[in-house]
Amino acid sequence: MKARIAVLAGDGIGPEVTNEAVALLQRAGDLYGHHFEFETAAIGGAAIDATGDPLPTATRAVVQRADAVLLGAVGGPKWGTGAVRPEQGLLGLRALLGTYANVRPVTVLPALAELSPVRADRVRGTDLLFVRELTGGAYFGAKSREQGTRDQGVVATDAMVYSEAEIARVVRLAAGFARERSGQLTSVDKANVLETSRLWREVTTRVVRDEYPDITLEHVLVDSFAMLLIQRPTAYDVVVTENLFGDILTDEAAVLTGSIGLLPSASLGVAADGAVRGLYEPIHGSAPDIAGQGKANPAGAMLSAALLLRHSLGLERVASAVESAVFGVLNAGARTADLCSEGAVSTSEFGRLVRERLA
Ligand code: IPM
Ligand code: MG
């Protein structure tokens, strides 16, 4: 097949890990007879430096005409938290593409279980699939800052808003994954306090009861789930939750695996006509402290490329081969600097090992 892939490397370690993901896709295309065309564009801090805008018009055009988007990371202390921020580029992109579900697989490889700060006997066998709502909640609700009374000073608001339709569509996607996996779905909310969470719970219960009666649904409060995730991560399979809870819980879940550098993500949206829009990125940030030193772990970016092959291009066989190659290199003992104190392989060396293994 032919596919056009937009490449938005972004900031910090974004470019170096994205390079490895692109080289891997190129190799996979050559081996399996597919032609991938790559079109690069600026996002985040790099785009602010070049144009003053974290999501320039030219970048919007590139992603709109692509079959899928590969992204590195955005942000860094250089750009601060002022009115124009790199993160706005990423949030704008999620909104533009309508990618309302962020899928984050969290798998603990047997070979890496000892590297987890949580006891190996607890994390071994962990295989979670987080589905985080991505275009609603406090991230996208009305924001304001106004002068309060004299003793209050300035008052800031981020409205957390959810509609039934927004909840139902992400729950359907998560329930679909649960059906393909263990048939077990955990929904995480804060229904004892938040109105949005009470609606979340009602809609989730109804969608699963009416449309996925074969699935077992469990509701867990977010504070309790934060604890259970560390205590017994193997007790869960597919986890669906709202935007902010999902942001926090997936960073926490990443710790179980030994390094956040290992984890990929797919941000998916199903348009009204059934077309899938996909944005693929590692879940780690831009790590400006190690940028440009060849220390970054490209596994999260490379596994994101596998998700792109699977979800946007429907190339399941190639996607599995890419995942086996990445896991194979890790199982064979190659470690980037985030996973060991000595004998680390560089970012590009790790990438080369994966490409060799694929062949
Ligand atoms: C993530 C990141 C983003 C988020 C930031 C960079 C805006 O933390 O993808 O999890 O909060 O969604
Ligand atoms: Mg995050």
Detailed description of the structure:
The chain is built from 12 helices and 12 strands. The strands form 2 sheets. The chain has a 10-stranded mixed sheet, sandwiched between helices. A two-stranded antiparallel sheet has the order 6-7. It is an alpha/beta fold and 359 residues long. The longest helix has 19 residues. β6 and β7 form a beta hairpin. The model has no long low-confidence stretch (mean pLDDT 97). It folds into 2 domains: 194 residues, Isopropylmalate Dehydrogenase; 129 residues, Isopropylmalate Dehydrogenase (3-Layer(aba) Sandwich). It binds 3-isopropylmalic acid and magnesium ion (MG).
Radius of gyration in whole Å, from Cα? 20 Å
Mean pLDDT across residues: 97
> What percent of the residues sit in helical stretches (DSSP H or I)?
40-55%
What is the helix tally? 12
Strand content: 15-25%
Total count of strands: 12
Shape: globular
The name of the CATH architecture of the largest domain is 3-Layer(aba) Sandwich
| CATH topology group of the largest domain | Isopropylmalate Dehydrogenase
Query: Which structural class best describes the helix and strand composition?
Result: alpha/beta
Domain count, please report it: 2
List cofactors, ions and other ligands. Answer: 3-isopropylmalic acid, magnesium ion
CATH class of the largest domain: Alpha Beta
Let me know the largest β-sheet. Answer: 10 strands, mixed
